[in-house]
Every structure is written in C-alpha cells, then in structure tokens.
From TrEMBL:
<dbReference type="InterPro" id="IPR006553">
    <property type="entry name" value="Leu-rich_rpt_Cys-con_subtyp"/>
</dbReference>
<dbReference type="InterPro" id="IPR032675">
    <property type="entry name" value="LRR_dom_sf"/>
</dbReference>
<dbReference type="GO" id="GO:0019005">
    <property type="term" value="C:SCF ubiquitin ligase complex"/>
</dbReference>
<protein>
    <submittedName>
        <fullName>Uncharacterized protein</fullName>
    </submittedName>
</protein>
<dbReference type="GO" id="GO:0031146">
    <property type="term" value="P:SCF-dependent proteasomal ubiquitin-dependent protein catabolic process"/>
</dbReference>
Length: 470
C-alpha cells in the first residue's frame, strides 16, 4: 500500500497561520478598514524582530497564501504591503519565484513588485541568494551589485527587462557570484555573457543556452581557466572543431554536466570535454558512429542521460545498457524505436536505473519487447514515465510484469498515450498493492470512467494515502 500522509507538522501549521494573518492584515490595510488599529509600520516592526530564517520562510508561505487568494478571487490586494513588510534587511535568501510559477499577474502589479524589491534590496547587505525569475530588471541588478557584495546565487531567467548592462554591473560588483541563471533573457547578448565570464572569477554554473558559442568565439586559445561545472549550447546547433571542444575541456577542468544541441559527427567529440556525469543531448540526426563513440568513451562515468532524437534503434539501447553500468537516470524522447531483431535484456543491463522516462512522439508504436527490456530488469526504479501507443498494455500484461518486477521502490508511475491505454480500475489497485512507496500515479488516458477516476481519489483520501492521482 502507498505510504500514509504524515501529520502536518506544528511548525508548518504555525507558519501558514502566521502567513494567513499577515496577508489578511495587509488586505485590511490596503482596503482602509476603519476599525483596524495596526499600521504597516507596526506590522513591519513585528516582522523585523523575527529571526532571519523565519522571515525568509514567511516570504514563501505568504506568497503561497497570496496564490490561493488570486486563484480563488483574482484579487491581488495586499500583495504590495506584504512585500514591503516581509523584505527585511536581515534576509539572506530572497526567493520570489512563486510570483511567476504560481500565478499570472497584470503588468501594473509586476511593476509594483519590481519597485518594492528595488527599494528593499538597498538595505539587504547580507543577501546571498536572489531568485526573481521573470520579475527582475537592470535597476534591481544594479542595486544588488552595489549593496549585496556577498551574493553567490542569482536567477533572473525569463526577465525581458534584464540586459547586458545589468549583467555587467552584477559581474563587477559581486565577486563571490557562483551561480547565475539567465535563460530566455531575450535582451541579453553575447557581449553581456562574455563580460560575466571575464569578471566572475568564482562562477561555477551559468545557465545560458549560448554559453558554448561565447566560450569558443570569445575565449578560444586564451589561457583563462574557468571553474564552470556545467557546459551548454542549445540555442543553435553546436558544431565545434575537435581542437575547439578539446580546448573547452582544458579550460573547464571541473565540468560535470553538459547540455547540447548537435549532430552525430559532433557527438563523437564529447569525450574531449572530460568525464562528464550528466549529459543532455538533442539531435535531429540519425544516431550513428558519433553516438557510439561518445557512449563507449563516456559510459563508465555517465549517471544521467537525457536524449531527444528522431529515432533510437534497439541496437543503441543495448549499447547504452552495456557501456553505461552506473546509469541511474535515462530519459529518451524520440519519434520511434526501431529494430528487426528481438530486443532482449540478458538480465544485467540498466540494473542501476532509478528513473526511466520513455516518450515516443505522437502515435508511434512502442513494442512490448522494448517495455519488457526495461521493466523486467530495472528493480530499483523510483520514477517511471511511459508515453507512447501501448495497446498491448492490458491489465493481464501489467500483472505479468509486476509478478517479475513488483516495482517496490517506485514513487512515481505515469503511463499515458495520445490515444488510449487499455489499463483499467483493476490495474490501479494492483499498482497500489504492489508499490508501497507510490505517491504519484498518472492515469489520465487509462480506460477509466469519470466515476472511477474520482472514486480512486476518494479512496486515497479516505485511507489517508500520500498519493496524488492525475
């Protein structure tokens, strides 16, 4: 049976009650309730007296409370007051990402948020982490560069008001910067990225889909050594010369991961980067000799492989299993899995896998042999995502799989199809009985009636299972 839901901790209950009260006071203040006796200054003084760790936790909890209100009423009243009250000088970790990921806000509200953050950050001299995904601006980065000299982690991805100017200020003014996220900052150019790489001497991770082209075009053959642990180039096709990719490996000796969009010929050059453990590859080319060379050379150190390609042959799956004995995460997104010969696992391939995501695009068919190749032998699986046309996957078939491999470690199982998954209500109960750690089960395209779907949810709630049905 799935694990029971744990009793909500007293700590979390207290935080949520306090967050709700702060939000309600802020709402009353902005609505001008005449009988209300507490001023914004008094509320700010109370929050200021709290330890920094409680203050920081309250920020995320109040954002959660605001999200619930916005979802229910579409009203953002109280948000501005909450931010002015909670963004205190003692804050070291300022995570406002929930304002983007949890709710869509009008432009005027976003302007208000940026204005408040700009003013409050001026006094945050102890700030070490700033997460302002989608909400940041050059003005805020300039203020951070002037006031927050100890900052080490900044994420301003998806912020169209961040430009090269803001990045340059941050790189020069914050010498301890180790992590910087600038994905989809459309106004940032290669000039700004180059400036960051030249001046941020302690930078270990730069989340930018142009990193590869900037390194090679601006620094190739220089004597500079970078502390980067992650290398990527996904904005455009990465087509380096052998000597260029070898230089990257020498210039970045600490690389542990890479994310690249490249063809098969360039795949053969990946071992020049060094012993990377985590590899994300997107290619529209047929996996050929380049892929074979890369996997053969890097397989001994790979723990994670994410592969997005047009097709994967059965031969390549066997190669991966043989060459990558330490692989714990394998995510494959492809148009088809091809092969004429029987796909057989002798029993030891992919034995270390804990996460298997296999997605075959649109309505392409995946064979039962391919499913069995993994599921009969991956005894350590914790996360299984299978998205493909699986007409053969009936209750009887799944039962046969579970008899051989009960998936006792599985926490997440999602089986889906654009058309139809033949699994029924019986298989839901079979998985719940077989997987004692299961907390996420995706059944949206199964052969279930609406009544059965809600019955499963009601049963999970009635039995207090920590199980999400989606």
């Amino acid at each position: 049976m799935p694990p029971r839901k744990l009793v909500e901790t007293l700590e979390h209950m207290c935080f949520m009650v306090l967050a709700g009260n702060i939000h309600q006071i802020a709402v009353d203040l902005e609505e001008g309730v005449e009988s209300f006796k507490v001023s914004e200054e008094q509320l700010a003084s109370i929050v200021e007296s709290l330890p920094a760790v409680i203050n920081e936790n309250l920020i995320t909890k109040v954002i959660e409370t605001i999200h619930q209100t916005v979802s229910r009423t579409r009203r953002t009243i109280g948000m501005a007051t909450c931010l002015r009250v909670l963004l205190q000088p003692c804050v070291q970790t300022l995570d406002l990402s929930g304002l983007f990921f949890k709710m869509r806000l009008p432009g005027a509200i976003n302007m208000t948020i940026r204005s408040i953050v700009l003013k409050q950050v001026e006094s945050m001299k102890n700030l070490t982490v700033l997460n302002m995904v989608s909400k940041c601006s050059d003005e805020i980065l300039h203020m951070v560069s002037q006031r927050c000299k100890g900052i080490v982690d900044v994420n301003v991805s998806i912020s169209d008001l961040v430009t090269d100017a803001g990045l340059k200020a941050l790189a020069v003014g914050c010498p301890k910067l180790e992590k910087l996220g600038i994905y989809k900052c459309w106004e940032v150019t290669t000039e700004g990225i180059e400036h960051v790489l030249r001046h941020s001497k302690n930078l270990q991770r730069l989340q930018s889909d142009q990193l590869g082209s900037v390194l090679i075009n601006k620094f190739y053959k220089s004597d500079i050594e970078f502390k980067l642990t992650h290398f990527e180039q996904t904005q455009t096709l990465f087509e380096p010369l052998e000597e260029e990719i070898a230089w990257v490996g020498r210039a970045c000796p600490d690389l542990e991961s890479a994310s690249l969009f490249l063809d098969d010929e360039s795949l053969a050059l990946l071992p020049k980067l060094g012993d990377v453990k985590i590899l994300e590859v997107e290619t529209s080319a047929v996996l050929g000799k380049g892929f074979v060379k890369a996997v053969t050379s890097l397989g001994h150190c790979l723990t994670t492989l994410q592969l997005n390609c047009d097709d994967v042959s059965q031969e390549k799956l066997v190669l991966l299993g043989k060459q990558c004995p330490h692989l714990t995460t394998l995510h494959i997104t492809t148009a088809t899995v091809e092969g004429d010969e029987r796909l057989l696992n002798p029993g030891h391939l992919f034995s270390s896998l804990t996460s298997l995501h296999l997605q075959v695009w649109k309505e392409a068919v995946i064979s039962n042999e391919c499913v069995e190749f993994f599921l009969l032998w991956c005894f350590k699986l914790e996360s299984l995502v299978l998205k493909a046309e699986v007409e053969f996957l009936t209750d009887q078939y799944l039962n046969r799989i579970l008899l051989a491999n009960p998936l006792k470690q599985a926490k997440r199982i999602i089986i889906a199809s654009d058309k139809h998954v033949p699994l029924t209500y019986a298989s839901v109960h079979r998985l719940i009985a077989s997987c004692p750690n299961l907390d996420n089960l995706g059944v949206s395209s199964w052969n279930l009636t609406e009544e059965e779907f809600f019955q499963i949810r009601d049963d999970a709630k009635k039995n207090n299972y920590n199980l999400m049905i989606s």
